[in-house]
Amino acid sequence: MISGQKGGTQASHFPFYVGALMIVAGIANLVLALVLGRMAESSFRRSMLLSQGELSVFFASPLAATLMSIGLLMLFWRPLSRLWSRRPA
Known about the structure:
Oligomer: single chain
Number of domains: 2
Number of helices: 3
Shape: flat
Number of strands: 0
Order of helices and strands: HHH
Distance between the termini: 62 Å
Strand content: under 5%
């Protein structure tokens, strides 16, 4: 009987645990964005200065071109999918 009550108690607190996890995950994502955002911006500025404003430096190597293409595809996926779904067949 004790184990049954314990399981019932855990099940009743489940929404609280999910909510707490969402808050902690949101805070962790915010901290990552603040730290990595500054680093990414400074690296972008440095690469733009070294390449004298040439954007082709991001597509110079096959690995960089692949990663940049995947990133651009992910960035524009939603608008492109909406545009493709509105076209008549």
